[in-house]
Amino acid sequence: MVSIVVVRRVKPIPYFVVPIFALVIGIVVSMAILFFLTGYMVWPTDVLKSIWDGLTHPNVIANIFLLLTIIGFSLALSFKGGIYNIGGEGQFWIAAWVMVYLVFTTPYLTSGAPLVSKVLVLLIGFAAGFAWALVAGLLRGFIGVDEVPLTLMMNYVAYYLIDWFVMIPGMPWRDVYGYAKTRSLPQSLQYSILQGSTVSVEMIVVTILAGVIVWLLLDYTRLGLTIKIHGSNVKLLRSAGYSVPLTAAVALALSGGFIGLAGVVYLCGVTPSIRIPVETSTSGFGYLGILVTWLSMLELFAVPIAAYVVSSLYNAGFTLMAMKGMQQAGVTAGVTNVFIGSVLLMYALLITISEYKIKIVW
Amino acid sequence: MFDPSIATLADLIIASGGLFIAFYLMALGHSVVEKSGILNLAIDGTFALTATLAFFMDVYYNNNLLLSFLVPAVVAMLFGLFMAFTLTKFPVSHGAVGLSLMFLMYGLASIIGYGPRIVQASLPNFSPGIALTVEERVAGYLVMLALGLLTYWLIEKTKLGVSIKASGEDPAAAESLGVNVLASRLIAAAIGFAMIGLGGAAYMNFYVRLWDERSIILSGYGWLAFAVALSGGRHPLVVLLTAFVFSILVHSSLQFVAWFNISRELSYSLPFIVAIAAMTIYMATPLRRILAPPRSLGRIYFREERTV
Amino acid sequence: MEKTGNQVFSQTPPPRTPIVRMENITKRFPGSVALEKVTVEFGEGEIHAVLGENGAGKSTLVKILAGIYTPDHGTIYYKGERVTIENPMKALSLGIAMVSQSPVLISRLTVAENLVLGMKQLGVFESPKKIRKYFEEVANKIGIKVDPEEEVWKLTYTQKQLVEIARALILRSKVIILDEALTYLPLEERRKFYKYLKEFTQQGGTVVLITHKLTEAFEVSNRITVLRRGKLVGTVKTGEVDIERVREMMFAERAKEITYERLMDGKPSEPVLEVKDLWVKNDYGTYALKGVSLTVNRGEVLGIAGIVGNGQAELVQAIMGLRNVERGTVLVNVKGRKYVMPDTKTLRELGVGYIPDEPLSHGVSIDFGLRENIAVMPGYTGAVINWSRLTQLAKKFIEEFSIVTPGAKTPLKFLSGGNLMKSLVARELDLSKHLLVAYNPTRGLDEVTSIKVRRVIKDKVVKENIGVLMVSEDLDEIFQVSDRIAVINEGKIVGLFEAKSADRSEVERLMVT
Questions:
Q1: Omega before residue A172 within 30° of 0, cis
Q2: Strand C435-439 to strand C271-281: parallel, antiparallel, or no bridges (unpaired)?
């Protein structure tokens, strides 16, 4: 009789081992799935080519890379606290929407110098993402509702509420020609693309700032330590006198705030209007971010690396489907989901070998 | 305009029959899975995939309902067995595995649905599934009640059920008491996920009877079933009630547009707001103690712990 | 060598055939070797005691036999045949059942449901109610009165232990392992039990008994195996040795250091903690404390003696603000100010230390190092953390308590259990400027370290005039450290004594209704 025995490891293994294996095996699994499910249309070599395409063309994926990096930092904050913020999508879009709403209903916001306006909307985005996530945070912290289905359902609520608001007739944010999108943001808010690249200075600055602030918060403040301890041992936190519910709520809310920055940056730096319906026009960065954060093993310095890889995977979906002529948006998103799912699954399974040794006994 | 009469209510109940069957099957299956201690975050993905598989079978096998229900149930069961095995044998995070399977299943659904969608476009008079008659809908309600009673008996009145409950309360203690936790969870997952699969197939065949991104993959109805199960305390008979309420609510939310003159998009958000409210009410009231969740739900099970 | 006259049962060993032979068993855990090449045999018809200090490996050895752990090397023979016991089910099928000191019954299920779980006689679809007749048969024999349809969380500790033992019998076990299972039972019950066990072995059964109570092992067993630091010291026939010899085997040269004599006296002054008529509920909604009143003065240690499960955990949690109080008050007096019902945060900020019952789960974060575990406590850092100062402090603790660790930053999960506990105690003692609330402060520590910790606590009491409320399940510890002793039973204080003049058997009597 063969049996599998699991024993805790005495010494940890270097932590890039798991993400790399997860990526490689996950991609292999995806290749197999795509090959068989598309009736042999998509070959493993096609998959590799499309991933390689993304990896070697940083200009193509640069925007996505920066956005995913910001989201990766934000999610690392809450995941380190043991709070699984799956509501990135909702926080992202609510922040974008609140910015659009305020920009078109309070003109004096954009009447000052462009730099001032840009900073203001970033703050607004942070506050909006913070507030949206705080709702979930309070329900999670003080009532104990599981944050995963909660934040996920709030994503749906966000999508539909925004769809509804945008399409209310006669509002100042409606697109002038009646298309299903909001009016483009005023020029003063739009980021200027750097010569010879696809990104803007503002985007790069916000990304770096987000990383630095999250790092300082986590490693050098009492709040950050509290969040980390919440993720490690909630009972210790309690017996040290802290309010556990409040810590959980703040962790989720702060995470939402930083994701709100990504929402603002998206609108100012990538595409200046929100297209309706949100649920089909979204690129799903809130979900892709989860992959980024996990692949980085919650280490802040690894977030950009993971973000780069994930952006290539995301891009690969488009490239692949264009190659094969299966250009339906659904299938493209589907391919990306197959990548995310496979890599994440391999990650979830392989992470055990970083803590435990698996023996076969007979 | 809205006419609050018994007749309207009766109409509503009959009309949402198909949806009730789908929600109840999913929620019941989900409850059985979770009673064994497995946190199932893959429910929405399972829903998307199984509804799509049912669609696939309908299109390519000309509405052969047997296949249309069987294949999704078996596929879902395989995923369930995988989950139960890895989560019990290895110290893996239930949430992480569940979510990754969710994404994977969304992806699979997108790709699998693509082919039949194109084929269906070339068959002008084809609709997947069947239109249930009034009698069939009423029968559906009764069949679900019977299923609920059967499941209740299994969980509460048999040794197998006790083993499943024990695995969900405290798997380490259960092992010491002689329970084969792995076997119990595999059985619970097989039964539970098969039911979820049947639920997805029921949704496609009896209710929505069309396939597109919005109605299937992006609908989030699996999460509504999750809320139905949770606020019903994962109790086979109480969940009948919560599934009933939700199916009426979801079905009528489309009517709200006409009745109360609200926008269509807003009506889409209502079921989710209610679901959040239902979960909150469950957690915030004594319900949480009376119909308590399994104590080790979602907890990583690891046998070789060090002692202090 | 003289034989002790204390033996209750006959010294003539019954004819023995080894039913279990564990050969060259080796087991490693991260950071330590629990067992190294241990060979031992258990015979039919004997009560075999396994003795050793904390960390000697006794529990690990029997857990391997019971299928909870698997050995890294070594073989197990059952009735002469080689077997692998990969899980408790396999052990049960061989007829090996284990009862440990913490009940393994599942609280939310009924007694019948718990019992039904191991029974092969019942089919998969049969009702748990069928167990009734088996249960009643055994229950009468060992004298317990429990309704099998009762949910387990409603039972007392004693009842739970007895149900578990009944279970071993219902399952027709041939080898019953008692891992400190009887240690917390009242003396009366223990005696009754040992009589039953003797009958069991006379019918050919085997009992493997782990206890740290040497005198009892002597009274009851036929043979004794001693382990020390994971290695076998030897197996002796109980009738052929005396207690001193066995003690020597357990502790070697260090036997002389172990003393259960009382530590120095405290110097009681004004009260620092006053508990008045406290009524506190447990997790299941029934009252764990029913009108408890006590006072802890500065400069003294008030020891709370009692069988585990009589409200002690709820008492310390309520005092520390970690559990709701239904009625009554908790008062803390610091620097002339009276704090009524202070919350956890206030207590910590004032300088009240807390050694919780489960140090791993409540007291430390094993993912982080000592310095983070200090930083999380109020009073050690402001909004921005100064790591260099905290690292210095951590190093001070490491030195003072001889904590074996690579450094102040090393995550505590890489430390051994004993060193973890030392880290916790070091921090809590530092935090205790006025009061220390301690529950089993030396759990998991070996004898030498335990004595040291108790000395440090008493020292601090005398020199810094703090008060200490110490709950302990170890009566020796209570008598060694306390100035006054209170006995708790079923949520009430049933006795209060001056430790110096207290009569131990009276205290024991009060611990049992």
A1: no
A2: unpaired
Residues of B in contact with A280 (CB under 8 A): 213-214, 218
- Asked if omega into B171 is within 30° of 0 (cis), the reply is no
Query: Cα separation of C106 and B177, whole Å?
Result: 9
Q: Could you tell me which chain B residue has the CA closest to the CA of A340?
A: B103
Asked if C104 reaches chain B (Cβ–Cβ under 8 Å), the answer is: yes
Q: Does A223 touch chain C (CB under 8 A)?
A: yes
| Chains contacting A (3+ CB pairs below 8 angstroms) | B, C
Compute the CA torsion angle A135, A136, A137, A138 (nearest 10 deg).
Answer: 60
Rounded Cα distance between C451 and C226, Å, is: 22
Distance CA A219, CA C368 (A): 12
pLDDT tens for residues A92-104? 999 999 999 999 9
Per residue in A153-209, pLDDT tens?
A: 999 999 999 999 998 888 899 888 888 899 999 988 999 888 878 899 999 999 999
Residue with tokens 């299920």: C109
Question: Considering only A98-112, B2-16, B200-214, which range has the smallest mean pLDDT?
Answer: B2-16
* Closest by CA position to C423, among listed C482, C467, C479, C360: C360
Q: Which chain B residues have a beta carbon less than 8 Å from that of A277?
A: 265
CB C209 within 8 A of CB C47: yes
pLDDT 10s digits, A221-266: 999 999 999 999 999 999 999 999 999 999 999 999 999 999 999 9
Residue listed under structure tokens 């089909």: A280
| Contact assignment for C117 to B180 by CB distance below 8 Å | no
Contact C128 B159 (CB under 8 A): yes
- Chain position carrying tokens 């004032």: C350
Q: Cβ A334–B106 below 8 Å, yes or no? A: yes
Question: Partners for B (CB, 8 Å, 3+ pairs)?
Answer: A, C
Summarize pLDDT for B124-180 with one digit per residue, the tens.
Answer: 888 888 888 999 999 999 999 999 999 999 999 999 999 999 999 999 889 888 888
The answer to whether the CB of C247 falls within 8 A of the CB of C482 is no
SS3 state at C28: strand
Residue C43, Ramachandran bin (φ over 0: left; ψ between -120 and 50: alpha; else beta): beta
B281 is written with which tokens? 């009410």
Query: Mutate which of B100, B119, B307 to disrupt the A interface (most A C-beta within 10 Å)?
Result: B100
* B307–A contact, CB cutoff 8 A: no
Residue C224: in which H helix or E strand, if any? Answer: strand C223-228
**ipTM reported for the complex, 2 dp:** 0.92
Contacts (Cβ under 8 Å, ≥6 apart) of A95: A124, A125, A126, A128, A129, A132, A259, A260, A261, A262, A263, A264
Q: Are A156 and B279 a contacting pair at CB < 8 A?
A: no
Rounded CA-CA distance C426/C428 in Å is: 6
Q: Would you say residue B308 has pLDDT above 50?
A: no
C91 reaches B (C-beta below 8 A): no
DSSP state of A191: P
With an 8 Å Cβ cutoff, are A326 and B107 in contact?
A: no
pTM of the model: 0.87
For residue C197, how far is the Cα from the chain centroid?
Answer: 22
Nearest to C334 by CA among C314, C318, C348, C321: C348
Q: Which of C87, C106, C125 is facing B173, going by the closest CB pair?
A: C106
How far A272 CA lies from chain B's nearest CA (Å)?
23
Judging contacts by C-beta atoms under 8 Å, the chain A residues touching residue C345 are 241-242
Structure token digits, residue C407: 């450094």
Assign C105 to helix, strand or coil. coil
Name every chain A residue with its beta carbon within 8 A of the beta carbon of C84: 1, 361-362
**Residues of A with Cβ-Cβ distance to C344 under 8 angstroms:** 238-241
Under an 8 A CB cutoff, do A361 and C362 touch? no
